[in-house]
Design a protein that fits this description.
Layout (H helix, E strand, L loop, with lengths): L1 H18 L2 H20 L5 H39 L3 H9 L2 H25 L1
Helix pairs in contact: 1-3, 1-5, 2-3, 3-4
């Protein structure tokens, strides 16, 4: 019974990862961090301009980090929700998820599912 729940959790979380806009958020934060690094190290940009633009970059990075965290929690929500249906309840599900073999299977099934899903999508398009 545990392994059925683990497989469902892996597929549900993987599907959520594929459908949520995680990569655009990561790209936006990464690009903004690069811009701020270039501004900081530039000798041609005045300190006045740096004082004006860096708080804006910080806001974008901070907002993106919070957004990424929220999306990550949404992607993992199916795993948590399965705890309510798991025999023994949420506490037993949480304990089961902490076992190294379960973590390994979750990771391998998720990676395999995502790889297969992306490969099938590319083959159709």
């Amino acid at each position: 019974m545990l392994w059925l729940f683990v497989l469902i959790a892996a597929v549900a979380a993987s599907e959520a990862f594929l459908r949520l806009p995680l990569l655009p958020v990561i790209r936006r934060v990464t690009e903004t961090a690069r811009k701020s690094g270039r501004v900081l190290t530039s000798k041609r940009i005045s300190d006045h301009w740096k004082e004006r633009v860096l708080p804006r970059y910080s806001w974008v990075i901070g907002k993106g980090s919070v957004q990424f965290f929220a999306l990550l929690m949404l992607a993992l929500a199916p795993v948590a929700v399965l705890g309510f249906a798991f025999p023994g309840g949420f506490a037993a599900w949480g304990a089961a998820l902490m076992r190294p073999l379960v973590i390994l299977v979750l990771c391998l099934v998720s990676i395999g599912y995502i790889w297969l899903r992306l490969r099938l999508r590319v083959g159709r398009g």
